[in-house]
Design a protein that fits this description.
Length: 176
């Protein structure tokens, strides 16, 4: 069993949500911190705690960033962090797992199961750190987290889909 510290310089949490029912709008959060306790011989002992600084949101459009960070969506002023804490991990093939945990957005906590792929460890040629890579993905219903701002279109559909695809890519360094 080893403990890995999330490297904020090489980790990102990204999302994609369908806009106008025709194309995805994407964004990412660039400030993630936390730890991963990992045992490659018994994947079920793996545990993860991660915190995302919600104000680190970037979609590429400042006006959209400000709107997503407002009370209409994630309300960063009242809820500055998005958190994930694992509760169960199951193997799902070579270097793969299903990780269930509590995802908290806007102060609302709901269980979510993520598909995880991991690789490494490798030794960095620069600083000599021992590093592992973890990539996790899931789809969540944003309405269940109180992220429900929307506009109804002429055909009765929503301007912004309720389902949000989440991808988290992490490099984590072995804690000495």
């Amino acid at each position: 069993m080893s403990t890995w510290i999330i490297d904020p310089d090489h980790s990102v949490a990204a999302f994609a949500v369908k806009h106008l029912k025709i194309a995805y709008v994407r964004g990412q959060f660039n400030k993630i911190s936390g730890t991963i306790t990992f045992d490659p011989t018994d994947i079920t002992k793996t545990a993860t705690e991660a915190t995302i600084d919600a104000a680190s949101l970037i979609t590429g459009i400042r006006k959209r960033d400000d709107h997503v960070m407002s009370a209409d969506f994630i309300e960063v002023s009242a809820f500055p962090f998005i958190t994930f804490r694992s509760t169960k991990v199951e193997g799902a093939g070579e270097n793969r797992a299903k990780m269930t945990g509590d995802l908290t957005i806007r102060g609302i906590t709901k269980p979510v199961t993520m598909d995880v792929e991991f690789s490494g460890p490798v030794k960095s040629p620069y600083g000599g750190e021992i590093t592992m890579g973890f990539s996790a993905s899931a789809t969540v219903d944003r309405f269940t987290y109180g992220v429900s701002w929307n506009e109804i279109m002429e055909d009765g559909g929503f301007m912004i889909d309720k389902d949000v695809k989440i991808t988290i890519d992490i490099e984590a360094d072995l804690k000495e």
